[in-house]
Records
---
Amino acid sequence: MNEIEKLEKKIGYVYKNKNYAKTAITHSSFANEVRGECNERMEFLGDAVLSIITSEYLFKNFKNKAEGDLSKLRASLVCEKALCTYAGQIGLGECLLLGKGEQHSGGRERPSILADAFEAVIASIYLDSGIKQAEKFVMPFIIKEIERPAVTHFKDYKTMLQEIVQQNSGERLEYVLVEEKGPDHDKHFVYEVHLNTNVIGKGGGRSKREAEQQAAHEALKLLGY
């Protein structure tokens, strides 16, 4: 059984266009070796598709929650940790096409790789069959995660910071990548968060999401929260 067949069996979906599936499970380390297309662009699209599916579900099913609470809940459902959990539930790591270095360094269990691949799979289903089929795939994971009590305690520092800044009209937040180092299998990112032109926080992590969250956390402490 090849990787695409493994993926189809694990997600319970058969692709009309197998190329979407192949791209979704192709990590940049493998693409660099064979000069092919990796899943980074699909990850970008999958992130947006996941956000709209999750947002619509929360909007319809949590009518008593305010916008800020909905934002925090959504963030807890689509963060890297949650996405990695979803990927683990279906054994997505077993399907991934990784470069030799990434395979030998534990890439199949790396949270950032699994989270990105899960988003890419969402995009691949969306491109192959549309939003309804993507929703059918995503929602069981979302509902199961919502039912976990710990979800309500997730701290989304980026959303918290955004809500504070929005209290003053005209203020603008921006996250800026200032450093990226290390090989593909062991990246480290450093982000600054800017309020207008001022640096108010800086954070690092093994994924861009983690680094941005750490930068926002530092900014909140600077602002006294």
---
Amino acid sequence: MIVPSNPYDAKGLLKSAIRDDDPVIFMESEQMYGDKGEVPEGEYTLPIGVADVKRSGKDVTLVSFGKILKEALKAAEILAEENIDCEVIDLRTIRPLDYQTIFESVKKTNRLVILEESWPFGNIATEITYQVQSEIFDYLDAPVEKINTADTPAPYSPVLLKEWLPNADDVVKSIKKVLYK
């Protein structure tokens, strides 16, 4: 299952999905159709199941995927102004999930925040949290923080929808929580 966060990854992962012998689900947000970014004219593919470290850091690991990754990157920029160094990981594919990249990052930062555009119950963040606590618990210096939508149906009103969705301010608060706990 592929969930790209930008045009470059979308092209490279789509090419890989087309060439893959196994069934592949390619999830994209129609809200990203207007996004602009560098996309080479030439042929290239990106490996399925390999996360991408979008920003290196030493203080906290921030994991996300899809269109909500933009909020993670905004939060990392805000926190950089306060000398908080976030490592931002874009999962790119959620099945298979690249646990090794997450584990290596958490071993370095000792803290994990996961941002996902989904309800808080039964999601990718829950699985990542389980795997981290199961495999590398001793590296954690604070509980894992999950940032999800509100545990309600998605509202139709644009004003309420904005409140319902996680944003960079929510990420900043959660990161400060794991750093100063």
---
Amino acid sequence: MTDLQTVLLVTVIAGSATGLGALPLFFRKRFSHRTYDSALGLAAGIMIAASVFGLILPGLEDGTLREVIFGVFLGRVALLVGNRLIPHLHTHYLGLFGEGPSRPRTDDETSNLRKAILIGGAITLHNAPEGLAMGVAFASGLEEVAFFLAIIIGIQNVPDGFAFAIPIGETGISNPRVLLYTTLSGLIPQVLAAAFGFGLVSVSVGIFPIAAGFAAGAMIAVVFREMVPMSHGHGYADAATMAFLIGFVILLIVEEVLG
């Protein structure tokens, strides 16, 4: 079994990749809806492929179909409960771009800090299940699966970070702080969830199939409940769909290369 120090190091690297998505803001202040919707589509395609090749299939290899299916539906229910309990704001409520109609008001000029906290809540919901799956995989002795998960989650975190950085940047926060907050949005939930998953195995052996299904169910639910609707609401559905397919193919190539 891998030691906790290695788990934390790997998840820190994967989680920190979210910050790479904020780097374009240092070179450009405004982005079109087409660019933003394509980034969402790209992240969604990677997430779906990661759910299948990085979670569901390894879960089936290590456990039973019933365990994986149970985990998938458990992940969906957990995301639904999280959406109810954790205050968060979907990014399409903010005026993010230099085009289109003006943004609708939310609660009579919600403060910039509150907006950042609310968006951060949504990102936390997205990233925690991924960290959980990595931690459980490492603790279950599935190092190859865990490292594969870390790679594909790191790749997915880049466009995910871009989708997070734009609305945070529009609150007037400086670019270095946007970079910091974007990095932390992936780093903190994934590292904490990985540590929790790693410790969980010590009291419940053989839970990787359920945990993998859980993470996959939560990620798939995020894609179809939030990312697809958000990327198809501005007239650029074709661009978002193509980006989705590109993201899916990128993970196919990664899976084939890593074997």
